Amino acid sequence: MLTSAPTQWPSLDYHSWKDTLATLHQWIQIVGKIRLRTMPWQNHSWHATLYVSPRGFTTGSIPYRGAAFQLDFDFINHRLTLQSTHHPDQSMNLFPRTVASFHEELFTLLDRAEIPVEIHGSPNELEEAIPFHLNEKNAHYDGPAVKNFWEAMIKINEVFTQFRSQFIGKCSPVHLFWGAFDLAVTRFSGRPAPLHPGGMPNMPLDVMQEAYSHEVSSAGFWPGADTFPEPVFYAYCYPTPEAFSKQGVLPEAAFYSEEMGEFFLKYSDVVASDDPAGVLMDFLESTYAAAANTGEWDRKALERPAP
User: What are the distances in angstroms from CA 47 to CA 60, 83, 172?
Assistant: First the structure.
């Protein structure tokens, strides 16, 4: 069993930083869309995602016109940095500023680096899709709260990465989807899945259907929203066998939502335990087993024992 590092997992309170979260989500969507438009296409939209870095979130290196560039959120010094092959590093400050202001300065940096990117200029997977360049509504940035959140993501990313290592079938990276703002890892059975019906706001149907073109068992972490104001871990599978929801999963605090069709575990319940990393690993392993067993996956061919 993976055990927690000596440093304590940070507490997360959605209400105390929800306005900052809303602003940060929009900023991250802008950076994610830049990666989406400049990376070669990869299955299940994996070319669009961001990653947890030692200082914040990163696009990773993006090949571009015979060179490369990279965008990095630094939540220690509260800056966004642009590195490119043929131009000096550039950066901009992260502070209480509008989405429109962030958008304008970032594209100025890209122009200076001769990276002329055009993105879809409105957010995805959000009910209110104000165009970025017009968004004067979201303008909050609590630096300590963002750093606290990122420190939690560091902990979660480590456990997810360990969990991913135990699967030898097709598996996604541990990556940050900027649409819903969730850190996720997805395992595949190898078999095609029924055509997905879609249903996410401001998300093209063909994107959803390609994302779920094959059977999956997926788990992730989501920081919360007004409709569910708690950070949570989730786990689901597609397609969803009828018996999936009836499976026993760990820990005892985990529960199944009939409305969402997923298992959930509150972040607060993980942090309150004596071994947060071990408890989270139990949730990941048991919910995957629920999906694989009820879906009749060939587990012997897809898994390897934990080292």
Answer: 10, 19, 11
